[in-house]
Write a structure and sequence with these properties.
Helix content is about 40%, strand content about 15%. By secondary structure, the protein is α/β, with parallel strands linked by helices. α4 (about 115-120) links the parallel β5 (about 105-110) and β6. The N and C termini lie far apart (about 55 Å). Keywords: Hydrolase.
């Protein structure tokens, strides 16, 4: 299969999606973008898997309206972040360094889809006051995933080389097709928001998918494997308040997963969203940002 031709960034990236980078203590480069109110309450946004910082642009307008500074890093191997064998247990250290770099001493975390476990992992950081989950994956023992996600998880465990070829093929088609093609992986139809028309949402979703594989599929494959393994922390040990939002028509993460997470977490609320996977982010993102602004720590 021929490699994908170079694609000018302006053809598929939102105009304001350029990232900044910082050097972590081990010398790795971590890329991140910020959206919303630069002087607002900091919220760490953990993108999905596959995914990147770009998807956080869907929440830029509500973040601005709510006075939220949405901080969206690309995890290792994603976008312009250098790859490394980072686990769910390691990720909070990268997140803590980013928050320190930005002079943040109090923040919350929001996780979408496969980013939910990474947001929850940050509960141990003293800076994190609350967490919100939007269509979040759960541990293997909690809830269920769709057939496609089960297939991808199995490949990540037993045939990562095949999963790499699958992701490269997916990128090859995404480059050559209309943005709505990318939306088909996460939604039944392209949603609209108060600030964005459906075609712009589709362009952002396409950009998100392409950015997630900008450095190749290794980062995504590692994360898919991590998400199919037992988590290194127990849900019962998460002491910060967690707001769970779960789409009732989600084909990627079963509605039962959101309910199960809320029941297992010590301090959690649950809200059912009448939407699919991507629609949970666009429809309930504003509510999630509002929820995590309610500070509870002194």
């Amino acid at each position: 299969m021929p490699s994908a031709p170079p694609v000018p960034a302006t053809d598929w990236l939102p105009d304001d999606s350029e990232t900044e980078t910082l050097s972590l203590p081990d010398g790795r480069r971590l890329a991140y973008a910020t959206y919303g109110d630069a002087d607002g309450y900091p919220v760490l946004f953990c993108h999905g898997t596959p995914g990147s910082h770009v998807i956080a642009r869907l929440l830029a307008a509500p973040a601005r309206e709510r006075g939220v500074n949405l901080i969206a890093p690309d995890r290792p191997g994603i976008g312009n972040s250098e790859d490394a064998s980072i686990t769910l247990e390691d990720w909070p250290d990268d997140a803590a360094y980013l928050l320190s770099h930005l002079d943040v001493d109090a923040a919350s975390a929001v996780g979408f889809s496969g980013g939910g476990p990474f947001a929850l992992a940050c509960h141990r950081l003293p800076e994190i006051e609350q967490v919100a989950l939007l269509g979040s994956s759960g541990p293997p023992s909690v809830g269920t995933t769709g057939r496609v996600q089960q297939f991808v998880g199995a490949l990540s465990q037993h045939a990562p080389w095949a999963l790499g070829r699958l992701f490269r093929l997916q990128r090859w088609f995404t480059v050559r097709r209309e943005p709505a093609y990318a939306v088909g992986f996460v939604a039944e139809e392209t949603p609209e928001t108060d600030a964005l028309a459906a075609d712009e949402v589709a362009r952002i979703v396409r950009a998100d998918m392409l950015t997630s594989m900008a450095r190749g599929p290794s980062g995504i494959i590692r994360e898919q494997r991590l998400l199919s393994e037992p988590w290194p922390f127990a849900l019962e040990d998460i002491s910060v308040p967690v707001s769970v939002f779960q789409g009732q028509n989600d084909a990627n993460v079963a509605p039962s997963t959101g309910n199960a997470l809320a029941q297992r977490l010590p301090d959690a609320s649950f809200e059912a969203v009448d939407s699919d996977h991507l629609g949970t982010l666009t429809a309930a993102g504003d509510d999630a940002l509002t929820a995590v602004q309610r500070r509870t720590r002194v």
